[in-house]
Amino acid sequence: MAHHVRGRFGQGFAEQAGRVENMRSGHRDDSIRGFCKRLTRRITRWPRPRPEERAGQPCVTPLYGALLPELNAHAGGVFFPNEAHIDGRAFTEALIHRVERLGATSIFGDRVIALKTQGDRVVGVESSSGVQFAGHVVLATGASTEALTRSVGLKLPLAGAKGYIVDLEPGLEDARVPIGLKDDMAVATPYTDRVRLAGTLELVGNDLTPNYGRIRTIRQAAVKALPYLAERKVIRIGVGMRPCSADGLPIVGPTRAAEGLSIATGHGQQGIVLAPATGQLIADQLTADADPMSTADLSPDRFRRMPGP
Prior knowledge:
Layout: E1 4-5, H1 13-17, H2 30-41, H3 51-54, E2 57-58, H4 61-67, E3 78-79, H5 88-101, E4 112-118, E5 121-127, E6 130-133, E7 137-139, H6 145-149, E8 158-168, E9 179-181, E10 186-190, E11 195-203, H7 212-225, E12 234-245, E13 251-254, E14 261-265, H8 271-286
Parallel strand pairs: 7-14
Antiparallel strand pairs: 1-9, 2-3, 4-5, 5-6, 8-11, 8-12, 9-10, 10-11, 13-14
């Protein structure tokens, strides 16, 4: 059994995008791949890996003994020294505090029900607490975005890819780096207050009902690789939807379906990685600093050109 030691960022969005088939033309589109590489570079400020590091380095027994002694019984793995991981919860909290210091207002526990329109323009959203007006609305509502955009005639081919997390109590034996279990498509990530197990992908629309068989599979995979997790107490189980677009690329930008509306969704499993770049791109578009031609492949309107069934 081969286990891979790697960061939460995986192979990187640019590499995945290079394997996506262009659904409109039926061939690989180097312009899309190049754009995604440029988009990814906006948030990778650390030095680029050397060529010999890009493919990973085999973890021989001495390196296991020094870095991850708990994996010495396994056949081997790959160590990616230039990868990193992030605590999504801490990142979100820091982001909220930052935007509030800049003058923004955060509203929690309020559910967006519909877009509020006047003629051909979106002027706000209807929420569970009333109407929130805005000069421009950016919908970053994940897999449920299409349910909101239908009212303005914009159909987005999105599928919800359900993923699971299982948080276990921390311990002194915990690994110092995330461990990707390639055979089982799961990841064990150590944080200061928990060990997070994550994995699986179910295409189930917007059904958030937990599948406890999948949850057991994730935990069993982690315990098989890291037996010291067997007795750990479960402190949280979570289910979330990754919004996947029909062509595998994010959906970012304004739409001709209605004035005053932009979309930011469709990032699949790369949402936390591409969030900063997406925010910058939306800001550039709203201030007319973005080149329309360079962002056309991410436009929500690209699906309006696709032939129907």
